[in-house]
Amino acid sequence: MRYTALYRQWRPETFDEVVGQDATIRILKNQIKSNRIAHAYLFCGSRGTGKTSTAKVFAKAVNCLNPIDGNPCLKCEVCQKLSIGSSMDIIEIDAASNNGVDEIRELRDKVKYPPVVGRYKVYIIDEVHMLSTGAFNALLKTLEEPPQHIIFILATTEPHRLPATILSRCQRFNFKRIANKSIVSRLAEIAKRTGVQVEREALYTIARWAEGSMRDALSLLDQCIGFGGNVVSNEDVLAVLGTADQGFIFAVAENIIEGNVSDLFYQVEQLIEDGRDVIVFLKDLIHHLRNLLVIKVCHDGAELIDVGEDTFKAYTEQAQKASQERLMRAIEILCAAEAEMRWSTQPRVSLEMALVRICRPEQEVMLDALMDRVAKLEQQLEGGVVVKQTSPSRKGARAASKSQAVDGGSTVGKEGGDDGSNAGGGTADAHVWEEVLGIIKKERIALYGFLKDCGFVLDEKGVAVLSFPADQQFFMESINREDNRNFVEKAIERVIGRQVKVRCTLVEGKSTSTEPEEKSQNEDIIEKAIDIFGEDFVEIVDD
Ligand SMILES: [Zn+2]
Q1: Mind listing the pLDDT tens digit for each residue in 221-266?
Q2: What is the Å distance from ligand 1's center to 72 Cα?
Q3: From the CA of 68, how far away is ligand 1's center (Å)?
Q4: Taking the CB of residue 541, how many other CB atoms lie within 10 A of it?
Q5: Integer Cα distance of 427 and 439 in angstroms
Q6: How far is the CA of 333 from the centre of ligand 1 (A)?
Q7: What ipTM, to 2 d.p.?
Q8: Domains of the chain, with CATH numbers?
Q9: Per-residue pLDDT averaged across 494-508, rounded?
Q10: How far is the CA of 194 from the centre of ligand 1 (A)?
C-alpha cells in the first residue's frame, strides 16, 4: 500500500475538522446556510494554518446538495464526485510553481463554461502573491466581471504583495497561527485514530516546534513515527529535531541562575560533542528562560506555558530560585547572541561569551563604565583641556572652604568638574558624579532635583559622602529615606562597578542654584558696558 503523508490523510473534510480558525469558519458556514456567497475570497495567514484545506471544504460545501449546518454532507452525488479529486469544477492553481500567465489566460477562456457537476466552479489560487504582473492583470479582468457560476479563492502568506485592485475585490479572511493547545488535541486525536501511542510531552514539543502550523506539526509527527515506530516518546521527537533534551536544558538554566560559569563551559562542550546544533539549543534555552520569567511575573502562568504538568512543576521550582532581573538580563543577552550567531563563523564562542556575560554582570558594568570614561577623556583631549597638577595644600584649602564636614580630600560641587584645576581624585569623582547624575536624571528626575547642588566625594572605604548646602536640609532628608538612598547607591555602583554606602551631610553655605542668575547679571553689565563704550574699550578681567 502506498503511504500517504499524515497531513494529506487527515486533511479536514468538513469545516468542523478545521482547527483553530473558529471565527472564520463560523462566518463561512453562515454564508453557506444563508446562501450569501461572494465571488472572490482572499485567505491570508502563515503557512499550515488551514487556508487551502478550508478553501477545499468551502468549494464542496457550496456545491453540496444537502449541506449539514453549513458543512458538506460528503454523501450526496455531488460531494462524492467532487471528492474524487480529478474534478473539473474545483481547480487548484499553484502560483508559486510558475508565474501563472498561461494558466490565468487559460482560466479566462474557460470561466465562461458552466460547472460539470454542481452549481459553482471554484478556482483556488495558492500563493497568489507569486503571480506576475501580467497574470494579475489577466486575473483582474475576470474578477471585475465574474460569471455567476464562478468563485475565486485566493490564498496567500503575503497579502501586502497583492495589488490594491485585487484586494478591493475580495472578501478577506485572516487565518491565525494555531494555538499549541489546539494542535496538541488534534495531534492526539489523529494519533489515537491511527493507532500510534504518543507521549503527551512529545505532542507539546511537536506543537511548540510547529509554531502554529498544523501541516508542519503533522509532518514532524510523521517523521517521529518513522523514527520511533508505534510508540513515540518525547526523546524520539527531540532526537528527530536534533535538540537537547529537557533535563539538559534545565541543568544549563540552573547554572545560569547560580552563575556557575565553569560548569556552563563544560555543558557547551558536551553539547558540541553530542553533535547538537548550537543555534537550535540557544532557541530552546531562550524559550526555557522565558517560561521561567512568565512564572516569576505571573506567579502561575500555566495557561501561558505549553507544557505537561510535570514539566510545569519543574519550571515552577526552578523559577523560585531565579531573580527576575537575572532572567531578563539572560534573555536579553541570549537573544542578542542569537542574532549575532547567524553571521558568525564561531557560534560556539558567541554562546560561551554570552554565558559569561550573564554570569558576571559586575565585570560588564565596570567595563562599560570604563569605556565611557575613556571615551570622555578622549573627547576632552581632542578639545584641548589642560590638566594641571594641584598642590595638596591648595586642595585641602579648597575643600575646607567649601565644606567643613569633609576633612581633607576634595569636594566636587557644581563648579568643581569644569574649572580644570581640580585634578587627581577630585576630577575622577567629578566624572563619576556627572555620570551618576546623568543616570538619575534619566530614571528618577525628582531625585535629580534634590541632588543637583550637592557635593560628592568618594572615600577609600567605599563611602560616598553627599554634602548638601545648609538650606537644602529637606532635600538631604529625602535622599536619606531608605528607598531613595538605595537607588542612589545602586546608581553609583553602576558607574564605578563596586558597592558603596551613601552618607549625607549638611555643609555651611547656600545652594549654588542661584549662580546662573548672577552670571547673567554679570553678562548684562558687560553687554551694557559694550553698548556704552564700544567693544574695543571693554576688557573683561576675571579676579
Ligand atoms: Zn453533499
Answers
A1: 998 998 878 899 988 898 888 766 778 899 999 999 998 999 999 9
A2: 5
A3: 8
A4: 4
A5: 19
A6: 57
A7: 0.98
A8: 6-175 (3.40.50.300), 180-241 (1.10.8.60), 246-359 (1.20.272.10), 365-510 (3.30.300.180)
A9: 84
A10: 26
Q: Compute, in angstroms, the gap from residue 86 CA to the centroid of ligand 1.
A: 17
Which three cell numbers mark 250?
Answer: 534545565
User: 73: CA distance to ligand 1 center in Å?
Assistant: 4
Cβ contacts of 73-78, under 8 Å, gap ≥ 24: 74/13, 74/14, 77/117, 78/117, 78/118
Which of 419, 505, 516, 431 minimizes the C-alpha distance to 466? 505
Instruction: Give the residue-averaged pLDDT of 364-390.
Output: 62
Please tell me which residue, 302 or 62, carries the higher pLDDT value: 62
Residue 1's Cβ-count burial label (10 Å; 0-12, 13-18, 19+) is exposed
Q: Is the pLDDT of residue 462 over 70?
A: yes
- How far apart (Å, rounded) are the C-alpha atoms in residues 61 and 384? 82
Cell of 265: 563551559
Would the pLDDT of 275 be above 70? yes
Classified as helix, coil or strand, 126 is strand
Q: Tell me the per-residue pLDDT of 89-147, one tens digit each, with 9 for 90 and over.
A: 898 888 887 667 777 888 888 888 899 888 999 999 999 998 888 888 888 988 888 88
